[in-house]
Hints:
Elements: H1 2-5, H2 11-20, H3 27-34, H4 42-51, H5 61-79, H6 94-148, H7 152-172, H8 175-185, E1 194-195, E2 198-199, E3 231-232, H9 245-255, E4 263-267, H10 274-284, E5 291-296, H11 303-313, H12 323-335, E6 340-345, H13 350-354, E7 363-368, E8 378-381, H14 387-397, H15 403-412, H16 417-430, H17 434-443, H18 445-448, H19 461-475, H20 477-486, E9 494-495, H21 496-508, H22 528-531, H23 533-545, E10 550-551, E11 555-557, H24 560-570, H25 574-587, H26 599-611, H27 620-635, H28 639-657, H29 662-677, H30 681-698, H31 704-719, H32 723-741, H33 746-761, H34 765-782, H35 788-803, H36 807-825, H37 830-845, H38 849-866, H39 872-887, H40 891-909, H41 914-930
Amino acid sequence: MLRIRADSPSYRDLEKQALQIGRSLPRTTLGEVLSGRRFPSKAFLLAFVELCGVDPAAEPTWESAWNRLAVRYKADVRAEPRPGAEDPRPDLSRQELRATRQRVRELEEEVAELHAASTARTEASRRAGEAVGRAVEAWTAVADELDRRGERALAARARTALAELAEAESAGAGAGVRTAAAAGAGASAPPPERTAAGPVPGLVPPARSAPEADPDAAPLPGRVSGSLPAVWNVEPRNPEFTGRDTVLADLRRRLGTGSTGGVQALRGVGGVGKTQIAIEYACRFASHYDVVWWIAAEDPALIGEQVAALAVELALAEPGTDTATAVAVLKAHLRGRNRWLLVFDNADDRAGVAKWLPGGPGHVLITSRAGGWERIAATVPVDVMERDESVALLRTRRPELSPEDADLLASALADLPLALAQAGGFLAETATRVGDYLALLDTHATAVLTEGSTGDYRKPLAGAIDLSATRLARLDPLGLAVVRLCAFLAPESVPVHWLLAFGRSTAARAPQDHGPHTPGGPLAALALADTDPVALHRGVGSAVRLGLATSTHDGVRLHRLVQAVIRDQLGADAADVRRHARTVLVQAAPGDPEDPATWATWARVVPHLLAVDPGGADSPELRDLACDAAWYLTERGDSEASARLAVDLHTRWTAASGPDDRHVLWAGRCLARAHREQGRYEAAHLLYEASMPRSRRALGEDDPQTLRLAHGHAINLRLRGRYEESQRLQEDTLARYRRLLGHDHPHALHSANHLAADLSALGRYEEARELHEETLARYRRVLGDDHPDTLRSANHLAADLSALGRYEEARELHEETLARCRRAFGEDSPHTLRAADSYGTTLRRLGRLDEAHRLQRETLARYRRVLGDDHPQTLRTAHNFSETLLARGETDEAHRLQADALEAVRRVLGADHPETLHAARHLALIRSGLGR
């Protein structure tokens, strides 16, 4: 072989040439053979000789050499001691050595004789088969002619003779005879399916009329539940396997539906547990199969050998049969039978798997990180574990973990099974506390995710991620650039059009703008997106195929642990890549956060914005985006999240840029409004009081930032009960807005709406009604009927009409406004709850007490759930509801509710607040009715 090998092609070229002609010559096997670590089969050696350009007929010595070596090799293998065992073979004397060599020669001669006899028998069998075939054709023609003439009895006798010939041949004649005779007799049944002792050894029984379809069917007859089939090469069951019952039940149901569900692909990111689910399925349902064969499919070039090995195991092919022949025989065999399961594990190449699928009524299970299986398999998505499953898995590996600590770990690891197994191993092996582990995970993700026993997983998570990233760098640098960029965003979907926009802007940058997008940088390949947008889509597909990302309906998502490892890999480049991730978000800015049309986009942007740490940014564009995001959160009713973001921005930007910076003042305004919506009027007041003079001094009286601060400050003054101060400040603000922006600008309309609310609070209802009517008309024209500010203004106007005694007009407007709020914002939105509360008051004034009671009771319950028992708006609704209870004669209930509300109002708003005083007067009225 070495002489023939001298001038032949490379291992890789030999492997490719073999695949092109339907042969198998894996370069790994070739290397082992040439280095003496593996003895080749005759078929392998013949393929090697031919592909090296040597005519086997011209070099006949190769076959005789192989025969001699094979005998010696097999004798050595039989005599080889087990690893670790003492070698029982004694040293041979010269005489014994001569006797052994003589025995080897005798064996070689016997092998040659057996080979010649086998060749003769095969030729005789072939000739006999041809003769019987000709006889069968003749008898079949006779039987058909008898049928045509109506001689049914004679035709039946002819076919009976053919069947007897098939039976006789099966007892001793060659395979060719059996096949021909059986075909002519019309007998499609193969050798007997079972003997008294069970199935025919080595063969899968033929398919029954209908494949088993019941997922909960009992084991096969004669098999004990949980027993393994005779043909089985699956690795041992994982004793720590936890959960996944829903996935396994769904998989069994799908596979049990017959041929339409016979091929299923478990698809998910690396480390999500696809292989473990496949092993568990095979073990759990082993007694339902006669054959279960596991095929490592990561390298398509090695699949054929493993499929051919099943043909050998089933005694359908001799060892050394070429792959193409063995696989063809196996496919034909399996297509006519059921109760077999093939598992193609870790397959990335659909075409590389498709050509090996046998078809037929058996089952095929594929595990893959890649998509695109729809044409050959039904896809079963595999996501991370449910939280209770994650907690159970962690406590299986570390029983002393408390449920609370296990939940913390599962949350930090985002329920990824491999990470959970590894964390459990790390804690058990190193006696690390959960808090310390979480701290290490934040600061040294790669190091932590490299440590710890992985149980039955093949490699640690960090190693698996690093291996995939290395492969992606080689196969598709653009895909790796996408992964690196997304590693600094949230573990949520990143729309591909964001990446395309960033790629175009990257290509347009001046050469002197150095950074990770410049030649050689970690994002350099993204410049290709400008000239070849399809390349970016391919890059996303490559990242998904290698398990570093998951595809979504319009983008790509990375698991948070994948992100952590990729960030660690970047080292000194990390800061620059984060800066460019921020640029991606600036370019995706949704627009006006007060416009509901932008809210869907804001909902996608905000998680990514929080991930890029806007508090640490000095970019004016990113700071603009962050302030708008805080405002959006308040507009959507999430003032808690808005306050958290605004506090971080205000604190860190103040330290970096000083208290008079425009963005610091903007963040302060966002925080003050969030406090106001939370009912924390005093905290908001302190911020407004500190920011107003700074903004006037630094930015000017008429600067938009100053005017918006003044507008918010005036609203907060009214909520604190300082109605006259609020009116004066809002009047000045409205005049400035109208002079600078015009009467129809949304900011001017906001100011007018709240000035009318001030007038209403002062009891000047007619003036308030007039201003509200004018403002509502402008809102409808400028912003539309369903805009939140339009609906807020309509609610204010309806309250004015109700206060003026124009109840029916108020009811109609309230009813319309509440219906629009429910449709646009949902039942629990602050806009909807305020509209429902006002409507309930009008219904009470109309005497429609039952309707008012139902609506206010439900609204109070929602307020308590959404805002809490002590929020000022909850307390206002409780006060209004107590008035309805009193009107219905439910005096005791009204007294209890109002007494509780008054105590809370005094605590929240203070004893001197107008609302506190009004609540006290109402409680006194109730008590007087009770005679107290």
